[in-house]
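Tutorial, part two.
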Amino acid sequence: MEFSEAIKAFWVNAFKFDGRASRSEFWSGYLPILAVGLIFGILQNQAKLDVVAAIKAGSPTGISASLTYLQNLSYFGLGVWLITIVPVVSGMVRRLHDRGFWWVWSAVGVIPIIGTIWALAVLTQRGTKGPNRFGEDPSGGRRHRKTTRGAG
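Running the prediction step on this input gives:
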């Protein structure tokens, strides 16, 4: 599946919790959302440091400006989270289906450290080949094979 097709499939199936999602569909949609989240986290941490610096400097206008900036970042981040949480969960559920797991296994991902490692391990592996109890193989049975070049 091409990158643009994978992103389109991620968003077209954003509210679909049945069936299966290929690795490319899930990760092409999830990684940009993750990148935006990381950027917001960095910006919010910097805004918090600015608030602390303004408090230490005793600058009421600096405190006010920094808090306003932090508040606006928080509202915008909350908006992005609200828009993307259902598509991410839907994609994760369908990705788990592709691996042969029921949706309840997505709860393991909330366990600190161990859950994240488990989720990464499961969500990055190939799905079951051919149809499974959740539907047809999203890769259509096509699997990337390692190619070897002949010496001659």
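Residues 3-124 form one domain. In part three we will examine how such features are distributed along the chain.
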